[in-house]
Recover the amino acids of this structure.
């Protein structure tokens, strides 16, 4: 699997993503600057966590206008895989590649801790190596992860089995609607999630529950 | 022409910051304060003298960048 990680000004999980991808694929991912207008030939694009453009205006709003995002959009339209983690998820909603929006956490606090998630959907390139209903622990680190969409959109996401991950009952860290932690687009080749799977791919870092996400992609895209 | 754009959360969208401001005002003794909603004000200078054109262009800016219409609404005020 060939991959690329996009770097926006103030991305801060780009190197975590790079390390995870290198460790699991055995290949260095391409690191792509936000001003580039073309992507290298890759199977997977990762939009990493961070505070792109200082979260000016709204989280992900400025990044959604960057020239590289046009290329990322085109990559997804051709069926290429894209995963947006944390700020990357915010960028995906701001570019309308995923529905809804990520609002300020309901209790206004930045939350940085491992959360329990359930894997809701395994029919996707991102989640096939998990078991349906599996409970996993992955850290979150965000102030704006409160997923919001109107009821019609939420019903549609659930009806089309596009909720990939939910916060486990009683462990919703941000007030997200219907405990949503991660969603898929209609074509199921774009995933956005607030938790950080790239931070838990090695027991040294406290867990390996994020590994299956990358392994799913490797199995599907290699 | 000068323009002022107000961006606020749509009705029904939870505004935790507004709530916190309300609670703080109550704490200061402003007991008459009811619901508080907060938002953004963006001031722009426009090289455009035609009001209709300015308004159309500002609407476009709001839809494309200044507001996230999934959660926010906007109002445009023009000053000659």
């Amino acid at each position: 699997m060939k991959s690329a990680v996009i770097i926006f000004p103030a991305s801060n999980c780009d190197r975590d993503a790079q390390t995870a991808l290198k460790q699991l694929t055995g290949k260095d991912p391409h690191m792509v600057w936000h001003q580039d207008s073309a992507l290298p030939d890759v199977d997977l694009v990762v939009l990493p966590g961070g505070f792109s453009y200082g979260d000016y205006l709204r989280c992900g709003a400025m990044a959604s206008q960057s020239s590289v995002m046009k290329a990322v959009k085109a990559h997804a339209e051709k069926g290429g895989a894209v995963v947006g983690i944390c700020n990357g998820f915010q960028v995906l909603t701001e570019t309308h590649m995923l529905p809804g929006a990520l609002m300020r956490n309901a209790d206004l606090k930045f939350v940085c801790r491992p959360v329990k998630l359930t894997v809701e959907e395994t029919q996707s390139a991102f989640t096939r190596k998990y078991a349906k209903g599996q409970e996993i622990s992955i850290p979150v680190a965000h102030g704006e992860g409160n997923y919001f969409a109107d009821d019609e959109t939420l019903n549609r996401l659930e009806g089309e089995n596009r909720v990939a991950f939910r916060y486990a009952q009683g462990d919703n860290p941000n007030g997200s609607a219907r405990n949503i932690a991660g969603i898929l687009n209609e074509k199921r080749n774009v995933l956005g999630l607030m938790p950080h799977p790239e931070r838990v791919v090695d027991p040294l870092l406290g867990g390996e529950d994020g590994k299956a996400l990358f392994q799913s992609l490797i199995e599907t895209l290699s | 022409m000068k323009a002022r754009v107000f961006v606020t959360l749509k009705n029904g969208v939870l505004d935790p910051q507004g709530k916190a401001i309300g609670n703080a005002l109550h704490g200061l003794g402003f007991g008459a304060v009811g619901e508080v909603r907060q938002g953004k004000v963006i001031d722009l200078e426009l090289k455009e003298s035609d009001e209709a054109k300015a308004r159309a262009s500002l609407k476009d800016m709001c839809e494309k960048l200044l507001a996230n219409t999934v959660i926010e609404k906007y109002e445009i005020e023009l000053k000659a």
Summary: The interface with chain A takes residues 13-14, 16-17, 20, 65-66, 68, 70-71 of chain B (CB under 8 Å). Chain B has one domain: 2-79.
